[in-house]
Design brief:
This protein is of the alpha+beta class. The protein has four helices and seven strands, in the order H-H-E-E-E-E-E-E-E-H-H. Helix 1 runs antiparallel to helix 2.
Protein backbone atom coordinates (compact mmCIF):
# COMPACT_ATOMS: atom_id res chain seq x y z
CA UNK A 1 0.00 0.00 0.00
CA UNK A 2 1.21 3.47 -0.80
CA UNK A 3 -0.11 6.94 -1.63
CA UNK A 4 0.24 9.14 -4.67
CA UNK A 5 2.73 11.27 -2.72
CA UNK A 6 5.21 8.48 -3.27
CA UNK A 7 5.37 9.23 -7.00
CA UNK A 8 5.47 12.99 -6.45
CA UNK A 9 8.42 12.66 -4.07
CA UNK A 10 10.12 10.18 -6.42
CA UNK A 11 9.86 12.71 -9.28
CA UNK A 12 11.08 15.53 -7.04
CA UNK A 13 14.09 13.50 -5.87
CA UNK A 14 14.92 12.53 -9.45
CA UNK A 15 14.70 16.18 -10.57
CA UNK A 16 16.99 17.34 -7.74
CA UNK A 17 19.44 14.55 -8.59
CA UNK A 18 19.45 15.63 -12.24
CA UNK A 19 19.96 19.31 -11.39
CA UNK A 20 23.07 18.58 -9.30
CA UNK A 21 25.39 17.65 -12.20
CA UNK A 22 23.92 20.42 -14.36
CA UNK A 23 24.82 22.98 -11.68
CA UNK A 24 28.37 21.64 -11.50
CA UNK A 25 28.98 21.76 -15.25
CA UNK A 26 31.79 24.17 -16.17
CA UNK A 27 31.78 25.79 -12.73
CA UNK A 28 34.39 26.43 -10.07
CA UNK A 29 35.49 23.70 -7.66
CA UNK A 30 32.76 24.44 -5.14
CA UNK A 31 30.11 23.99 -7.86
CA UNK A 32 31.26 20.36 -8.15
CA UNK A 33 30.96 19.93 -4.37
CA UNK A 34 27.46 21.42 -4.18
CA UNK A 35 26.40 19.70 -7.40
CA UNK A 36 27.55 16.38 -5.96
CA UNK A 37 25.67 17.04 -2.72
CA UNK A 38 22.50 17.92 -4.66
CA UNK A 39 22.86 14.74 -6.69
CA UNK A 40 23.39 12.65 -3.55
CA UNK A 41 20.46 14.26 -1.75
CA UNK A 42 18.09 13.85 -4.72
CA UNK A 43 19.16 10.28 -5.39
CA UNK A 44 18.66 9.38 -1.71
CA UNK A 45 15.13 10.84 -1.68
CA UNK A 46 14.27 9.08 -4.95
CA UNK A 47 15.66 5.73 -3.72
CA UNK A 48 13.95 5.91 -0.31
CA UNK A 49 10.68 7.06 -1.86
CA UNK A 50 10.65 4.22 -4.37
CA UNK A 51 10.51 1.73 -1.47
CA UNK A 52 8.07 3.85 0.57
CA UNK A 53 4.82 2.18 1.63
CA UNK A 54 3.38 -0.50 3.86
CA UNK A 55 3.86 -4.15 3.02
CA UNK A 56 1.67 -6.84 4.57
CA UNK A 57 3.38 -10.18 5.22
CA UNK A 58 2.44 -13.34 7.09
CA UNK A 59 4.54 -12.22 10.09
CA UNK A 60 3.25 -8.66 10.28
CA UNK A 61 3.40 -5.35 8.52
CA UNK A 62 6.52 -3.55 7.39
CA UNK A 63 6.38 0.23 7.35
CA UNK A 64 8.84 1.95 4.96
CA UNK A 65 8.98 5.75 5.30
CA UNK A 66 11.48 8.33 4.14
CA UNK A 67 13.23 8.27 7.48
CA UNK A 68 12.48 4.83 8.94
CA UNK A 69 11.75 1.17 8.35
CA UNK A 70 9.73 -0.60 11.04
CA UNK A 71 8.31 -4.10 11.29
CA UNK A 72 5.35 -4.78 13.57
CA UNK A 73 4.25 -8.35 14.27
CA UNK A 74 0.54 -9.12 13.87
CA UNK A 75 0.36 -10.57 17.40
CA UNK A 76 1.35 -7.16 18.83
CA UNK A 77 -1.44 -5.31 16.97
CA UNK A 78 -4.77 -4.83 18.73
CA UNK A 79 -6.50 -2.87 15.98
CA UNK A 80 -6.33 -0.10 13.39
CA UNK A 81 -7.94 3.32 13.27
CA UNK A 82 -7.52 6.58 11.36
CA UNK A 83 -5.58 9.18 13.35
CA UNK A 84 -4.85 12.88 12.89
CA UNK A 85 -1.17 13.68 13.01
CA UNK A 86 1.46 15.97 11.58
CA UNK A 87 3.81 14.83 8.87
CA UNK A 88 7.44 15.78 8.27
CA UNK A 89 6.59 19.26 7.01
CA UNK A 90 4.01 20.00 9.75
CA UNK A 91 0.83 19.70 7.69
CA UNK A 92 -2.15 18.09 9.38
CA UNK A 93 -2.76 14.66 7.92
CA UNK A 94 -4.97 11.69 8.58
CA UNK A 95 -3.10 8.40 8.68
CA UNK A 96 -3.89 4.80 9.54
CA UNK A 97 -2.51 3.96 12.98
CA UNK A 98 -1.85 0.53 14.47
CA UNK A 99 -2.96 0.26 18.10
CA UNK A 100 -0.26 -1.86 19.72
CA UNK A 101 -0.08 -3.42 23.17
CA UNK A 102 2.60 -0.89 24.08
CA UNK A 103 1.40 2.28 22.32
CA UNK A 104 0.60 3.34 18.79
CA UNK A 105 2.49 3.06 15.51
CA UNK A 106 1.38 5.68 12.99
CA UNK A 107 1.83 4.65 9.36
CA UNK A 108 3.03 8.06 8.15
CA UNK A 109 3.86 6.74 4.70
CA UNK A 110 0.11 6.33 4.08
CA UNK A 111 -0.78 9.86 5.21
CA UNK A 112 -3.04 12.14 3.22
CA UNK A 113 -3.41 15.88 3.67
CA UNK A 114 -6.73 16.71 5.26
CA UNK A 115 -8.56 19.99 4.82
CA UNK A 116 -11.69 18.82 6.63
CA UNK A 117 -11.08 18.35 10.31
CA UNK A 118 -13.71 15.75 11.18
CA UNK A 119 -13.83 13.52 8.11
CA UNK A 120 -11.62 10.64 7.08
CA UNK A 121 -10.54 10.62 3.41
CA UNK A 122 -11.94 7.73 1.39
CA UNK A 123 -8.49 6.38 0.55
CA UNK A 124 -7.44 6.36 4.23
CA UNK A 125 -10.67 4.59 5.18
CA UNK A 126 -9.91 2.00 2.48
CA UNK A 127 -6.40 1.46 3.87
CA UNK A 128 -7.78 1.04 7.41
CA UNK A 129 -10.33 -1.50 6.15
CA UNK A 130 -7.63 -3.48 4.31
CA UNK A 131 -5.42 -3.50 7.41
CA UNK A 132 -8.31 -4.64 9.64
CA UNK A 133 -9.15 -7.46 7.21
CA UNK A 134 -5.50 -8.59 7.16
CA UNK A 135 -5.46 -8.58 10.98
CA UNK A 136 -8.66 -10.67 11.10
CA UNK A 137 -7.18 -13.17 8.61
CA UNK A 138 -4.10 -13.48 10.83
CA UNK A 139 -6.15 -13.93 13.99
CA UNK A 140 -8.15 -16.67 12.32
CA UNK A 141 -4.95 -18.71 11.85
CA UNK A 142 -2.69 -17.77 14.77
CA UNK A 143 -2.86 -19.80 18.00
CA UNK A 144 -0.57 -17.33 19.85
CA UNK A 145 -2.93 -14.35 19.62
CA UNK A 146 -5.67 -16.18 21.46
CA UNK A 147 -7.65 -16.34 18.26
CA UNK A 148 -8.60 -19.97 18.59
CA UNK A 149 -11.72 -20.38 20.71
CA UNK A 150 -11.32 -22.27 23.97
CA UNK A 151 -12.90 -25.66 24.25
CA UNK A 152 -16.20 -25.49 26.07
CA UNK A 153 -15.98 -27.61 29.20
CA UNK A 154 -19.18 -29.28 30.39
CA UNK A 155 -20.17 -31.92 32.91
CA UNK A 156 -17.43 -33.48 35.08
CA UNK A 157 -14.72 -31.33 33.47
CA UNK A 158 -16.53 -28.21 34.57
CA UNK A 159 -16.74 -29.43 38.18
CA UNK A 160 -13.02 -30.28 38.17
CA UNK A 161 -12.21 -26.88 36.76
CA UNK A 162 -14.32 -25.18 39.43
CA UNK A 163 -12.53 -27.17 42.17
CA UNK A 164 -9.18 -26.21 40.74
CA UNK A 165 -10.07 -22.52 40.74
CA UNK A 166 -11.44 -22.67 44.27
CA UNK A 167 -8.28 -24.42 45.45
CA UNK A 168 -6.10 -21.74 43.92
CA UNK A 169 -8.22 -19.01 45.49
CA UNK A 170 -8.30 -20.60 48.94
CA UNK A 171 -4.65 -21.56 48.83
CA UNK A 172 -5.21 -25.22 49.63
CA UNK A 173 -3.62 -28.01 47.66
CA UNK A 174 -5.60 -30.99 48.85
CA UNK A 175 -9.05 -32.19 47.90
CA UNK A 176 -10.00 -32.11 51.59
CA UNK A 177 -10.07 -28.31 51.61
CA UNK A 178 -13.13 -28.37 49.39
CA UNK A 179 -16.06 -30.50 50.38
CA UNK A 180 -17.35 -32.75 47.68
Amino acid sequence: MHTRWRWFLFGLGTAVAAIGPLAAKDGPWYAYVFGGLWFLMGATVAWRTFAMGTKLTAEGLTSHGLDHQTTVEWCDVQGFEPKRSRNLIFFHTITPAAQLRRGTHVLTELSLLSIKKDSVPERTAKHVTELRQALERHRGKCPECGAQPKVLVTGQGMVARLRSRLRSLLGGNSDQSIAR
